[in-house]
Structures are given as C-alpha cells and as structure tokens.
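Listing S7. Sequence submitted for prediction.
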Amino acid sequence: MSNIITEITKEQLRTDVPSFRPGDTVRVHVKVVEGTRERIQLFEGVVIKRRGGGISETFTVRKISSGVGVERTFPVHTPKIAKLEVLRKGKVRRAKLYYLRNLRGKAARIKEIR
C-alpha cells in the first residue's frame, strides 16, 4: 500500500522548484481563478518558515502591505504556483523567523548573502 502512495506522490512532485531557505526574499506567481478568468497574482516577501517534506511541504512568506503585515502559506508542490523566483538570499541563524512579526522598519531587515 505504501508503495502505491509513494509512486503517486512522486508523480505529483514539481521539479522546477528553486532552492530557497528562510530569510530569502521570494516572488511567488500565484494562479487566481475569478469566475471564468484565470490571472497571475504576485506575492513578494521574506520566507519566514519552511516545514514538512515531500508532497506536504509548505513555506510561509511575509510581506508588509500598506503598513500591515501579511503572511501567506503555500504548498511547495501545488499547481497553483505558476512560478517561484528567489530575489535575494538572506543570512539568518534560525529556521523559523517568527521574531520578524514583532520588528518594525529597519529592524526587520535581513542581511544579504553575496
């Protein structure tokens, strides 16, 4: 039974996912269906966590929109993501960057890896 499950999940895995870690700034191109139309919506921010493995792996991106913090969690292998771009590599020493929720302005910046 588990062989069948692993084979099916292997077929569902995406191969075009770039390598990214918490602290990286990414731009996610999300397919949004509105009625009969389908369009691409961009969500750009800092990856604050990445969890799970295989088909159930997810990552959370945080951005500030009109002064309000917005976090969105995406499955890595979903077909709803049209494209995933890594804009900047960040240098952090934690796997989960929940502390960024309490920081404002320049304090919330992350050093860039050259």
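Caption to Listing S7: primary sequence and predicted structure tokens for the chain studied. Helices lie at 2-12. Residues 2-12 form the longest helix (11 residues).
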